[in-house]
Here is the input.
Amino acid sequence: MVTSNPDDLKQADFYIIAVPTPINHAKQPDMSCVLGATETVGKQLKKGDIVVYESTVYPGATEEECMPVLEKFSGLRCGKDFFIGYSPERINPGDKEHSFKNIRKVVAGQNPKVLEIIADVYASVVIAGVYRASSIKVAEAAKVIENTQRDINIALINELAVIFEKMDIDTSDVLAAAGTKWNFLPFKPGLVGGHCIGVDPYYLTYKANVLGLYPEVILSGRKINDNMGKYIAEQTIKKMIKMNKSINGATVAIAGLTFKENCNDIRNTRVVDIIAELRSYHINVLIHDPLADPKEVKHEYGIDLSDWSEIKNVDAMILAVAHKFYLDMPPQNIINKLAKPALLIDVKSVFDREFLKKNKIEFWRL
Here is the structure.
């Protein structure tokens, strides 16, 4: 059933709430969307209904925050008149291999009977099957640490990249060598944005703080990753200065704005940190992205995207997002956009170093 009329929800007896759970400017959980959806559903609840949450939250949120709202607006009692469950959304934007049907679904229910109903519903559409978590809190915790673990691993590699830069060692070379050991994890340095990895850890740290705990490793990783955009901009400026390029009034092009390659999602993209830092030096920044929607970019960030044809004779280009659009074109097409002496900042280390050296292109990569 597809509808915009809340009254139509009365026809359902199984509800799935999957709305954004972002953070506010203070990096605290913003539960307004999920609580708003909960209120809408609560007003339509009937006896025997089941409400399942998929939104990423801190452990305990479904029962502590959402359940009371359902009870308030339905006038019913949870666990007696209606029931709740949790099954975290695990979609990876831009990933055509790991689709909804091919990712095993974690499910949890308020009691064993409800758990089996929820499991049966998801098992009917998820080929990979379901995993029955022992409780709603366990399922919530499992989801939030999936992205927290990845965030911390990337933070380690980002910190190593900064260290290796000081040592004049190429990070990609180090990772290639270390990767020959069977149990070395293949993470790479880069910007960490999006609506999951760059957000979810703050839900866990918020709950930890409420409990009187200070999660040092998680917050340290977040700090490192949040500062990478500024670091990349600073390295760009340092290279420009060494090349005797004027900074004030220079023009730098940024290729890619979305939070990851080959998807059009601009939520919480950290490319904007590069843009902000460059502009603080009075640098004219041109931004191109083949997939991002120009109107959405303007609305969310106040940024006007440039057409690829408008980028020419720039003092430097930063390949921030390795879209297929850029990788499929002949490298010379990108080089032709650069003013002499040419400077290319290869954030994702995708260009052939020997080709760049042969063509006398100054470059830096993370």
